[in-house]
Amino acid sequence: MWAVTAVLSLYIIGVLTNQNTQLWVVEVPKENAVINSLQDAGHVDVWGGNSTHTQVVVEPEVRELVEEMLRLWEMTHTVEVEDVMALVKQERRHMQELKDNTSRRRRAVQPQAMDWNTYHNMNDIEGYIGWVNHTGGGFVEVLDAAASVEGRRVLVVKVTDPNSPQPKKKIWIEGGIHAREWISPAVATYILHLLVTNESWRELLKVTEWYIVPVANPDGYQYTFTSERARLWRKNRRDNLSSDGRCKGVDLNRNWNLKWGVGASSNPCSETYKGPMPFSEPETRGLQAMMKSIGDIDLFITLHSFGQTILYPWGWTRNAPANAKQLKRLAKKFADAVRDASRGETEYEIGGSGPLYGLASGATDDWAYGELGVPFSYTIELPDQGRYGFLLPETRISSTVTETAAGIQCMIGALTNTGLCAQRRVRQPDTFWFRG
C-alpha cells in the first residue's frame, strides 16, 4: 500500500467549491484494501456495501484526497447523495414538528406515553422503561448491566410470565449499539411495548423469557441528538486522549472477545476502532457478564441499520457455521413474515456476515454464538437499502417496527411451536461446534 501512503503524505487541503458532505457509491466490493485504508485513516466513513459496491461518506476537506486515491487505483464512483447534512436538517425539522404536535396531545393523556412516529432520545426511552417497570406488575424487571463511560445506565428489561411453568426459551434483543442507527432502539422499544401491552405477545410470555436492551450505547446515542454534526456518530464516548474530538470513542460492536481485531481498526480516529483490548469498555463488559449470568440463551438478535439483511455467523470468516441450514431456515421465517406484513414491499436478504458484508469480528452475534453457545444468533440490518441509510425518515418508523415485530414473532413461534409460524418447526440441534 505504498501508493496510499504516498498520496496521503503529499496531500494538501485545497480550496473546495462544494463544501457538502456527500455519500458516494464506489464500484468495488466492500472488503477492499484501499477503502479499508482510507477508513482506517479516518478519511471516509463506510456506510454500507456488498460484493459489488461500497457506500462511503466523504467530508469536503478530504474530498480531493479521496478522489485522487480512487483515480490512482482506477476505481469509479458516483455521488448518491449530494448533501448528507441536508437530510439531517430535514430530519430535525420533521422531528421538531412531530414533537410539538405530540406534546400538545400528551398534555391531555399521559406524559410517559411512547410513540413510534418519531425518534426519541435517552430521556424519553429511560422514562418509558420506568413507566413499563411501574405498570408491568410481576412481568417486568429492569436490570442494570453497566454504567457507561459518561455514567449512564445500560439497562436490560426482563419480561416473562412468572406464573407459567418452566423451562422457557430465552430471547435476547440488543438495540442501539451503534449510536447513529436510530431505528434500532425504535424497534427494540416497540418489541418491549408489544410484550407488555399486546395480548398475543403476552401469550408468548408463558413459554419465553425476554431480555431487551433498548440502547446498548447510551452515551453515543444521546450524543447524536445534540447537534446536526453529531447525528452521524457511531461509537461510544470514550476519551482516547486525542487532541481531535473526532477521535473519541470505541466501536462497541468490534470490542467483543472473539477473533477480536479482524476487520477492525487500531486507529482511535477510525469509525471501527476496536479499543485497546477486548471488553475494554464498561458497556461491553457489563452486557457480556449479564448474558453469561442468564445462561442458555436460545435466540440472540442484535438490531442494526441499514441494508435489509438478516445475517448469521461468522463475521470473521466466509466459512459457514455448523448449523447454517437451521440458521437459514429460522431467518427465512423472519423474512417471509416481513414480506407478508409489508405486502411484498420489504424484502430481506439472508446469509453469513462474512460472505455478505466482508470480514469483521469482535461483534456481539459472533461472540454470542461462538463463546456463549447461543444456537440461533443474528444481526438484523433494518431498512432501508441505502437511499437514506442511517437517516431513515420518521415516516418509515411505524412500518419498520411493525414489520420487524411480525418477523421476530414468527421466529419465536417456530422456536416454541406456537402460533401460525409453528408449522415446520425449526428443530434445535443436539450438538453444536461453535469455536473457530
Q: What does this entry show, briefly?
A:
It is built from 13 helices and twelve strands.
Overview of this protein structure:
The chain is an alpha/beta fold and 436 residues long. Helices cover 35% and strands 16% of the residues. The strands form two sheets. The protein has an eight-stranded mixed β-sheet with strand order 5-6-8-7-9-12-10-11, with helices on both faces. The chain has a four-stranded antiparallel β-sheet with strand order 2-3-1-4, covered by helices on one side. A hairpin with a 4-residue loop joins strand 2 (44-49) and strand 3 (54-58). Helix 6 (183-197) packs across helix 13 (397-416). Mean pLDDT is 87; it is low at 1-17, 107-111 and 430-436. This is Peptidase M14 domain-containing protein. Involved in the digestion of the blood meal.
Write the layout of secondary structure elements.
Blueprint: H1 2-10, E1 22-26, H2 33-40, E2 44-49, E3 54-58, H3 63-72, E4 77-81, H4 84-106, H5 122-135, E5 140-147, E6 153-160, E7 169-174, H6 183-197, H7 199-204, E8 208-213, H8 218-223, H9 282-294, E9 299-305, E10 309-312, H10 324-341, E11 349-352, H11 353-357, H12 364-370, E12 376-382, H13 397-416
Parallel strand pairs: 7-8, 7-9, 9-12, 10-11
Antiparallel strand pairs: 1-3, 1-4, 2-3, 5-6, 6-8, 10-12
Helix pairs in contact: 1-3, 6-13, 10-13
